[in-house]
Design goal:
Layout lengths: L2 H21 L2 E3 L6 E3 H12 L2 E2 H8 L3 H13 L3 E6 L2 E9 L1 H22 L4 H25 L14
Antiparallel strand pairs: 1-2, 3-5, 4-5
């Protein structure tokens, strides 16, 4: 690694705590002050787009299946996610948002976007576009690295509860 590359790596590492602080550890889900963890937010956000199997959801939010099981169990307990058997493959269980889960996800999404918009409004439009482009490139590099590091996906249990 060149000196310039090492400097870039150090600078990225130095930025991460501020980014985590800006995003927060919890995301509000209602005006009453209810909140979910950032990781739970990423799960409901991923399920807003489409139902997913446990393995798909774990990959979408970059967690291992045992961790996903805890996340999903907590959201099932809140009545926000439901597990459904796959009629064509008994080994698969699909995860999807319930209507209360969709409502909470919409509120949480708006709250998270507002929080981040407050931060992004402090930089120029050109810096903002560069940041988004750079973060998308970083996400792509991380996904490529993960595929190279684990060529075989972790098998899910038939009940969608991890290993």
């Amino acid at each position: 690694m060149s000196e310039s590359d090492a400097s870039d790596v150090a600078r990225v590492l130095d930025c991460l705590p501020s980014l985590r602080r800006a995003l927060g550890t919890e995301v509000p889900t209602s005006p009453k002050g209810d909140a979910i963890s950032a990781t739970q937010f990423y799960a409901v956000r991923a399920l807003q787009h489409r139902d997913r199997t446990a393995g798909e959801l774990a990959r979408a939010i970059s967690v291992r299946l045992p961790t996903l099981t805890q996340i999903v169990d907590a959201l099932v307990d809140r009545g926000w996610i439901e597990r459904r058997d796959d009629p064509s493959d008994r080994r698969k269980v699909w995860l999807g948002l319930t209507e209360p889960g969709r409502e909470a996800a919409r509120y949480a999404g708006a709250a998270a976007e507002e929080r981040l918009e407050t931060v992004l409004s402090q930089i120029t439009p050109a810096q903002r576009r560069a940041l988004v482009k750079g973060l998308e490139a970083l996400r792509g590099a991380i996904q490529t690295q993960r595929r190279q590091d684990s060529p075989r996906p972790e098998p899910a249990r038939a009940d969608g509860r991890g290993r």
